Amino acid sequence: MHEHTVRLKTESRVPAFLIGDLQSRLAYIDEDIAGVVVAADGASVQLSLRRSPDADRQAEIQTKIERVLQAMVPGAVKPREKVLEDRLDRPLPFGRDPMPALLERGEVVQEGSGIAVLGPTMSGLIDYFEAQFVELARSFGAAGYRFPALISPGLLDRVEYFRSFPHSLSFVSHMREDLDAIERFSQTAGCKDGALQMDRSALSDVAAILSPAVCFHYYGALSGSRLPQGVCVTAVGSCFRYESSNMISLERLWNFSMREIIFVGPKEFVLDNREAARKKVAELLEQWGFAYRVEGASDPFFIGDFKKQVAFQSAFQLKYEIRAAIPHRQGTLAVGSYNFHQDFFGRHLDIAMQGGAPAFTGCVAFGLERMAYAFVAQYGLDRSAWPDIVRRGVA
Amino acid sequence: MGGTSDRYRPEVRGLIAEVLELPVERVTDELSFGDVSEWDSLGHMDLLMALEARYGIPLDEDLIARLVSLPAICSYLEERAHA
């Protein structure tokens, strides 16, 4: 599809610490936007558009951009850099983009935008990392859980997900129980440009959402509980976050897998375990030879509450990300995170300790496709260049 | 809580009540972040922004993490007045 490039000046300069966040949010503001680059000086935005815009359309898009800027920029608090571990200087044997080789060897097959099939080497890496994370979880006495890919809209509503992350939701519908509608669909439905063409009135209301995280299921299951002591569980699950035109390579998938170790209990129990887990994960990353760093981060809030939530998370050090080096683009990619939610879920879902105090929650999460992708970005697909422990561990 | 920060207490209590949309009698002397559902993360940031607007308190991470109760806000204002 031919794309049209438009460069728009911003009314006020975007500070450097907001450029990445702004760029990812702008992907959602108009269906004609296929790509966004905010200039390094923060003074302009370059858009790739699916259709050539006339003057009115261009003005409309510019107005939306200014709305986003107004919501995100004035009064934004610059986060203080908080680095807990830094191994980004580790020498690495590979520096090329791994995607061409992954595609050529059938290790990655892109079934759709943000939807990837993984082959034996990538699956082997994921299985290997996963097994180590499960062992790590067991060292905390974590009980194993299985959670569904679907999540109840009611649960997400109770934890204010719609307000904070509306842009990344993936809704589940089905055919209405209607003979005529079903027959009409079976006779007329088809795909065009990767999208299903159908009469949308045949669809039911949204009764389920594709789960954007693993731990919500556990907090939902604990709703109404009074806990005698802190608990730790672990689960792996499919997660779904729609990333619009930000979905590229294996870095941002719509559907990905996450292993989580979840802590619920008194504040010190959660914080101490989060910290203990971080130290154990550091040992694993060292063994696997990852170049990475652990730094303060925030969740990808949409523009409404972005400024406030990001400043709050950063000030209270609620989230740290494990960011693995991606050498070919001289950047990093979040492959895991250490999260502390304070008593947010305890209060919103009525989870308390036996004494009546709201329970605190936290989790350690690993994005499995990203772990495997970062590893091959650092070490390539030639196993002879891999660290011994990984080569031996991957079937 | 006694001491010199008492002089700021009535107006800070009023500000907290106004920003968090609470009846002033629910703003107790020791009220802290999380004690009432209205003083959550968003309420806290609204309060910090109101403090910035009224007293010129800079909105930085240290103060966001520090000004988490009525006494903490009053003490900070007192400290600043004597700085």
Descriptive overview:
The complex is a heterodimer of chains A (395) and B (83). In chain A, 34% of the residues lie in helices and 26% in strands. In chain A, the strands form 6 sheets. Chain A has an 8-stranded mixed sheet. A 3-stranded antiparallel sheet of chain A has the order 1-3-2. Chain A has a 3-stranded antiparallel sheet with strand order 8-12-9. Chain A has 3 domains: 2-72, 2-Layer Sandwich (Alpha-Beta Plaits); 83-167 and 212-393, BirA Bifunctional Protein, domain 2 (2-Layer Sandwich); 171-202, no CATH class. With 395 residues, chain A is of the alpha+beta class. Chain A contains 13 helices and 20 strands. Chain B has 83 residues and is mainly α. Chain B contains 4 helices and no strands. In chain B, helix 1 packs across helix 2 and helix 1 (9-20) crosses helix 4. The model of chain B has no long low-confidence stretch (mean pLDDT 91). The A-B interface holds A 75, 77, 79-80, 305, 307-309, 311-316, 342-344, 347 and B 34, 37, 40-42, 44-46, 49, 59-62, 64-65.
